[in-house]
Sequence to fold (265 residues):
Amino acid sequence: MEYRINGFNQIKAFYSLVFEQKHNIKPQHISLYIFLVNQNNRNKWVEWFKCPFDLAMAGACIGNKKTYYNCLSDLQEWKLIRYEKGVNEWKAPRIRLEVLNCTASETASVPQSEPLGIPLPIPLLTHIYKHITDNIYNNKQLKELRSVIDKQINKQEEGDGIKNTKEQFYKSELETAKEENNQYSKLYADCVKMIFGKNSSGLKLTGLLSIPNQLTFDQFTKLMKKSEAAKTNLPQMMLQLSNNRKYYSGKTSVYLTLNSWINKN
Fold:
């Protein structure tokens, strides 16, 4: 039988499995599987394709190599993929997506969106809309007010986007810490709580959260080991970093910033 994948049906059938909850599918499994589907698509749906682990980890936003290989193993066990290791450490492993068939019963398991109970209003004709808005914003004061409101809306939307992205990042890293279950797992969870407001001020560490590259569990573990050797207080350093604009402004990595601080001590 010819190997043939339809990307749309593949993803549709995969999410049917997610909603059926037959397997313990976690966010990192979903992220990795969708990335592998994308890679197969880029390779023109060949039966076997190569995928280096560092590329897959970056594409699936998985920061821990052990978590990545656990996810691969799970996907293979659930018969979603087949995975063959490279012949040596310099050769990329080979991956094959198992063809998923989307049946009517599988589709039914996915929650459906409810139709609108009230019909959408008919939009105004362009010339009428322009006439109304021109009259509303003709006044200079109203124009200034509109500008202020637009800036506030854009700022809020930008802040919400950062907040959601960072919360998703730390949620994934907490899963990694939980799987590792070592002496730093609980400390990392406590630091994440501190970052999101469980501290003496009761406020989020917005300065630290403004830095693009946040702190993975692996990076936190490395910093804790160095901090213990240097007899410094890592959580206190994180608070200090966030409380002073000159410390976080223009920084690109929480890990690199804190690492340089520890090295100076």
